[in-house]
Write a structure and sequence with these properties.
alpha+beta; Ribosomal Protein L22, Chain A; 5-stranded mixed β-sheet; 4-PPantetheinyl_Trfase_dom_sf; transferase activity; P-Pant_transferase_sf
């Protein structure tokens, strides 16, 4: 049975203390169960300033909930109080722990009422979640897809174009975050079409700077109304897919 055949397993943040030493945990976090901003106490001053800049209370509350969930999980994995963690932006804007805070790789993505958080003690990783629109912005493919990806998209029936578009886009975003290059990535140089229908596959990212050049996309449990992706180095390891529940 593959990961994609299994549901997201409900767990509290304490499960992050049992993070696999050779693999990763992927946490799906609902953001709208409680938008009371109670998590604001876990954030640092910079995160609270960013939250205050959102134009609606809902967007502000979702940002707070996503970043509070990240701190809760990272804190549990390191056995440290979440509010005491110091996070900094690395090259490309990817958040990481400040020196002396501990050794842990993590990544966060949020869209609508969902956040996706990846944790690994050993490997750099990237995650992405995107709400699926009934009218996907297929025009983005002209700027961000490889020639082969555009050919695949063109050949698919209309009923499957959206599925491929979101699978490819979330993979590209996850890989760009895993490498730390972010939006500086040459997305058209990446071809992530292999295995897209099954949710798996590998990509040799020769156009990206630095090792490793071979990355794997792991099959993940489906999420109704959204697309999700996880990029890890192409090495064997366990990936646990968990649904965050309050402690």
């Amino acid at each position: 049975m593959s990961v994609a055949d299994e549901p997201w397993r409900p767990a509290t943040p304490a499960a992050a203390r049992e993070l696999p030493q050779s693999g990763a945990q992927l946490w799906l976090c609902p953001l709208d169960d409680d938008c009371s901003e109670a998590g604001a106490a876990l954030l640092d001053a910079g995160e609270r300033r960013r939250a205050a800049g959102f134009r609606t209370p809902l967007l502000r509350a979702r940002f707070i909930a996503a970043h509070a969930a990240l701190r809760s999980l990272v804190g549990a994995a390191l056995d440290r109080p979440p509010a005491d963690l110091r996070l900094v932006a690395a090259t490309g804007g990817k958040p990481e722990l400040a020196p002396g805070q501990g050794e842990l790789h993590f990544n966060l993505s949020h869209s609508g009422g969902w956040a996706l958080i990846g944790l690994s003690t050993r490997w750099a990783l990237g995650v992405d979640v995107e709400l699926v629109r009934p009218d996907p912005p297929l025009q983005v493919s002209s700027m961000a897809f490889s020639a082969r990806e555009k050919a695949v998209l063109e050949a698919l029936p209309a009923s499957r174009k959206g599925s491929f578009f979101y699978a490819a886009w979330t993979r590209k975003e996850a890989l760009a975050k895993a490498t730390g290059q972010g939006m500086a990535t040459n997305f058209r140089a990446l071809d992530v079409a292999d295995g897209w229908a099954e949710g798996g596959g590998e990509v040799r990212a020769a156009a990206l700077d630095g090792p490793p050049s071979l990355w794997r996309f792991h099959p993940l449990p489906p999420l109704d109304g959204a697309a999700v992706a996880l990029a890890l180095p192409a090495l064997e390891g366990v990936v646990e897919c968990l649904l965050l529940r309050p402690a």
